[in-house]
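Notes from hallway chat w/ T.B., transcribed later so I don't forget. T.B. wanted the structure written out for a chain they're using in a teaching module, and asked if we could keep both sequence and structure tokens in one place. Agreed to drop them here.
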Amino acid sequence: MKQKFLTHFFTGFLMVVLSTHLASIGLVAESPAIIDSITFGDVASETNHAFSSVTSEIVKGGLDESARKLLPLQTESWQGGSMAFTLKIDPAQPNYATIRLWGSDGSSERLILFCEGKQVGYIHLGDVDLLDFGNDGNEPPLNGRFFYSTSPLPIEMTKGKTELHFEIRSIGAVWGYGQNFNQFQKPMNLPTRGIYKFYTHTNGFFVPPANEKQGDAPTNPPVRKEPGAEVMDKLKARVNGEIKNLLASTKPLNEMQMEFLAKAYFVKWTPTFQNSNVVTQVVKGLDALFAQWRENPELAQHDPTTPNPDWFEFGPAGDAISLLAEKLKPLLDDPINDAGKKILRRAAYSEMLVAGRDWHRKNRRLYTNQSMITDMNIYLSNRGLEVVDPASALSENEVRRYLYEALSLEPWRDSDPGADSHRWNIGTNYWELTGKTLTKELGFVGYYGEVLDWVTLIYDATRPAPGLPGDEKIKARLEQIANARAPFRYPAVDADGFRAMRAETIIGWRDAHYPGNVMYAERSTWDASSLYAVAATLDPDAIGYAQQMFDDNQFFISLERQMAQANNLRVTAGLLGVPDQYELVKAQPPISKRLPMTRGQPDFVFSDEEDGVVALKNGDDILYISLYWRAHKAINFLARVHYITPQFERIAVVRQETEFEPSGLFYTRRDAIGGATPGGVHYPDDLHSAEAGEKLPIAKIPDGVRFRPGDDNVFAGKGQFYTLRYGNYLIGMNMTTDKTFELKPPENFKTARELVSGKMIDLSAPVKVSPRSTVVLWLGNHDN
């Protein structure tokens, strides 16, 4: 039975909430007026709102507007300065709070909202986010303009009240992979960025006062002039320096070093090209790796020399063997030491590779990027086995299916069964990518969804030999993924004010920084350049995006940044193929294709009804929305929005209408302020969550999927139909494969432009939204 829930579950208050919730998502007359606001640094405004502060300073900030910065405490602490004040709210309607920040300010420190002494939202990756999660590296998010960040206030805290006591507190940055408090939560050492104003209002679409200064978007930003091609000389010097050190090493190489040298053996501009010393060093490293594994069998599942111990073992070693197969074969029947006994290399390497391959087969990873990495290393281990012991190798069809599953060319079949197997129990029809080839975790993924480097590595793994074509199905999938990511780059300027395209991060489930990196066809990573997939496919669209990067002169600076990430082998190995990639792409004829969000490109709508995400360009508007937003455990009725206009930007978590099939189960929010933090990270006991105790319904879980309330689950918080009114946009998304829903138009509108089709449509009756489709109505700039 389908059931519609418009908001939370109150007794006595429910009818009021239902009607006001309709107003909050825009299905009745909008009420965007601000209820109250405070201007920080303005004595009269602060006095009128019972303002007080601890360790703050008044500054003259953007466009000569007054602001306050919160400062570190004299004694080092993870917490910093704070300020308290009182603002009016609406006692009957759902309320929101919005903060005004200057986009040229930079700080890695964070701002958290408290109401009545309780924390609103979560410190890390919560569905209700921080007021401001800072910007790592102090890169300004929006040079020369203001931006606004909006958060929903807990309805249980606001109902029946006419004012609330607020605090804005500051804390240091966090490291999301920390396994204890000191690793996770960093001290606050710097001032926050300037805090200009704070507002309360009842509509999720915040409209600033008409007389508020905003700044101007650069209409024609200059093109970067440097650096240039001299960066390539630095790159080659770094790579060749590493190669020379490894060739001269008297210590056995680890498996990452062996793989690097084996790949360099085929690169003409390096000293390793066709160099027999490469084979000598790789064999010595393989012999040592076998001895280490024999002494410590857990090395097959946890090699600390790999980037993520338990994701790679012994894939890089298998890759080195496969790459150097013809040179290694004469040495495979030589005996080596095996704890005082003799064993042929062939048998030794076989035992080692089987152990690593089969451990991974029984311990696969579910999230898409992780599945790609571990399944690739199953395949690479098997490629090595094909050289040393074909009888122990899986057939190509048997082993390539792991790659196909990771890339959604086949449904994902879970870990292989066995007594020591880790099973995910997500059913028999789970796919690692959406039908539109975005990665799939629990919703739209920003940086972790940028998997083009890993998919290209997978494609390279299937090449019979370096330079020969790989699997055509995987190549086609690589092109599809690249094109699906293209809408998630928007026009901006880089840190120095030059023309650039940036990656969208605000609506990403696992993203917590703003702005996104400069990015065109693909991101520059530790493991690959911004041309890796382009050169592998020579897809015309991707070439056009790369040529746009060349036109903006953002390629060489991307290389500089790539080299500056770390002075380690992983980054150096990722640079190895860059010179040849650059020459290949640079030689392609001009292509007019440009990234779809580029100014001057046609309007469009991209939607993915499995990830619950919308990206649209409508004139000068760019709008990104995650409708299925961080609903890890239950339906949360929240959407995440990033609205980009020439005047300013809005970032918001807003309420929406969600229809879903109920399970009859509920999840009650815990009194925990950390959010999606690793286990073992606990904040002080005197800090409490304003959302604690909120009872959220759980959607129906498919048969055969193991689940209990409180689990993170891809089905528990996913709706069937979402309705969101945000400003002049009304969006209806149908996530089902077999049902049709109705999008109810707002009152007083006779027609509207439907942006997906580009047609004017009649609004005298509800708009039908068919399975796996999205309707976007534009309610502005036309007569009704």
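Follow-up for T.B.: Residues 1-31 have pLDDT under 50 and may be disordered. Might be a good example for the class.
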